[in-house]
Amino acid sequence: MLSRAPLASDQTGAQVSQTAERAATDGEIDLAVVRQIMSHFTPQDYQEAQELILSALQEINEHFGYVSLEAAEIVAEHLATTANRIYGLLTFYADFRTEPRGNHFMLLCHGMSCYVMGSQRLVQELADRYGIGDGGTTRDGELTVQVVNGCLGVCDRAPFVKLDDDYYGNLTTESFNELIQRVIAGGRPAQEHHGHDGSAD
Ligand code: FES
Question: Which of 3, 66, 113, 133 is most solvent-facing, going by the fewest CB within 10 Å?
Fold first, then answer.
């Protein structure tokens, strides 16, 4: 669960951008839906409004997979804060995204065991072959990758990734590329796991 951010810099809503009113949608996120979501947040006073900011951002992030800048501006306006503060929260917390995810989403473990077993080679492969880094999305919009510096809990299968709802371990550069290519092409990867036990290859 996200902890609440400091409120010291958040004094007025005077800096709220006017751009949220310029368009009904931003092309990706239906801003009417954002306003509908925000209509459920009815703070009684300024302090309560500030306490609802993260919940509102989480709901929008969950609904759309990210929070666009235009959506953030609506949140700022509704909860009497500044767009700058909203942007700060969106970039501070790793759970939030400010750009849409690709059709497929990968968590690439870069914890100690995975690092020792070669996750850096996978990170490098993403950069070299697909042109993306942590949080990036391939140009065709098919794959978004988030590098996890913690541990996904399957160290005996390192290096390890979670791709969409499935888990893949003992990856080499070759099997990593094969996995990505097959998933992007809509096929079922050869190495497939439906749980953390690593019982099937
Ligand atoms: S460090 Fe990657 S699964 Fe534990």
Answer: 3
Which pLDDT belongs to residue 188?
52
CA-nearest of 135, 151, 154, 153 to 143 is 135
Yes or no: domain 10-92 corresponds to CATH 1.10.10: yes
Domain 104-200, CATH: 3.40.30.10
Q: What's the DSSP call for residue 106?
A: E
What the block records as the tokens of 158 is: 């390192």
| DSSP class of 126 | I
150 CA closest ligand 1 atom index: 1
Q: Does 18 score more than 90 pLDDT?
A: no
In the chain, list all ranges with CATH 1.10.10. 10-92
> Does the predicted TM-score (pTM) go above 0.70?
no
